[in-house]
Specification:
The chain has about 375 residues and is mainly beta. The chain folds into 3 domains: about 120 residues, Immunoglobulin-like (Sandwich); about 70 residues, Immunoglobulin-like; about 140 residues, no CATH class. Helix content is about 10%, strand content about 45%. The protein is built from 3 helices and 27 strands. The strands form 7 sheets. Strands 16, 22, 24, 25, 26 and 27 form a 6-stranded mixed sheet that branches. The protein has a 5-stranded mixed sheet with strand order 2-8-7-4-5, with no helix packed on it. The protein has a 4-stranded antiparallel sheet with strand order 11-10-13-14, with no helix packed on it. The chain is rod-shaped, with a radius of gyration of 41 Å.
Length: about 375
């Protein structure tokens, strides 16, 4: 009887020992869609991200789940690793199977700066006595890209740090203006309020590119409202479209009435104007162009401007454009109208009377 009891005890001990040392199957990781990688194309935002339905299994029960993001840079031997927020341990601990919805949230910037690939490493560890860990990777491969850097300055060679730069479909609004693109030909536009936009084309072929852009200040988009002056002795009597003129100069355009001949008004520069340069047309788009034209011309202190004379015989107003340098700025001026309406009959049919000069300007 004693022998039987000893055998039963030994059998029970063996059963307990074997149950504590059961060999469990290694954990598994699967997901849908059943893919291991994808290629990122900078021109296709739909290729930047992926959503995976991940299933973790562990026969011994799940102990831990981790997700790592490993970013590999060109020329760097090892990746930059960061833990990714995953499921809470309370959601899966002890389960033999757990399904998790995983989705990336990349932007174009994530694949710039020399990034070759981003690898997500999924890791599951079971609860067996000798814990078993299984890993599986999903990789985003970045197509080989090159850096295109824009160096933007104004006409005074000062750096412009707040322009809007568009390269293909990519946009940057603050310096440094660096884009990472695949080889190819790209149109670009550089814009900043108060400056003329600059457009161009850059060809990227296996090497970095630097594009230098100089912004030119814009003129006003439209001509100003009319600026009207009259002869000093007629300030209180001259009319333009039946309205009193009341001034003999404009410091905005640097023009002051001086005198008149039988056919012309004579104007002179005001105290804040350095001079006038007559030009052939008004085809100027930037202040730099105005400055160049003024510098290339011969500045004078007064001009004769032909007027329409209503008394004995009509004479046509002469169209004349000139550039004035006023308070250090260059102003493009259009002599719009000139009238000399005299006599006892009062204002003409247009409501003009006396010596009338009408200008518009851009600056």
């Amino acid at each position: 009887m004693r022998t039987v009891k000893i055998l039963l005890a030994l059998f029970a001990a063996v059963v307990v020992f074997n149950s504590c040392n059961k060999e469990y199957e290694a954990p598994t990781i699967t997901w849908e869609p059943d893919e291991m990688f994808q290629s990122v194309k900078m021109s296709d935002e739909s290729s930047l991200n992926q959503a995976l339905t991940v299933t973790f299994t562990a026969e011994a029960g799940i102990k831990d789940i981790k997700i790592w993001r490993n970013t590999w840079l060109n020329g760097v031997a090892s990746p930059t690793a960061a833990i990714v927020d995953g499921p809470a341990i309370s959601a899966y601990e002890g389960l033999t199977s757990y399904e998790y919805a995983f989705a990336t949230n990349h932007t174009l910037e994530d694949f710039q700066g020399g990034v070759m690939k981003i690898v997500y490493e999924f890791e599951v560890t079971d609860q067996s006595e000798e814990a078993q860990t299984t890993t599986k990777e999903y990789t985003f491969f970045a197509w080989e890209t090159q850096a295109v850097t824009f160096v933007i300055k104004d006409a005074a060679n000062a750096e412009v740090t707040d322009a809007k730069v568009t390269l293909g479909t990519l946009v940057d609004t603050a310096a440094p203006y660096v884009f990472y693109v695949e080889d190819g030909t790209y149109d670009y536009t550089v814009e900043k309020e108060g400056f003329a936009p600059v457009t161009g084309e850059v060809v990227v072929a296996g090497a970095e590119k630097e594009v230098s852009v100089t912004l030119q200040a814009n003129l006003l988009a439209d001509w100003s409202e009319n600026v009207v002056i009259t002869r000093t002795s007629e300030i209180s009597t001259s009319l333009y479209h039946n309205e009193s003129i009341g001034v003999d100069k404009s410091t905005v355009i640097g023009v002051q009435y001086k005198s008149n001949t039988d056919t012309h008004h004579v104007v002179e520069k005001t105290a804040n104007c350095e001079g006038f340069v007559v030009v052939d047309n008004a085809d100027y788009t930037t202040s730099d162009e105005l400055e160049a034209a003024y510098t290339a011309g011969t500045a004078v202190g007064q001009l004769e401007l032909k007027f329409k004379y209503i008394s004995t015989s009509p004479k046509a107003t002469e169209v004349k454009y000139f550039i004035a340098k006023v308070d250090g700025e260059y102003v493009l001026i259009d002599h719009v109208e000139g009238w000399n309406v005299q006599g006892t009959g009062g204002a003409d049919e247009n409501g003009n009377y006396g010596n009338v000069l009408v200008f518009k300007y851009k600056k």
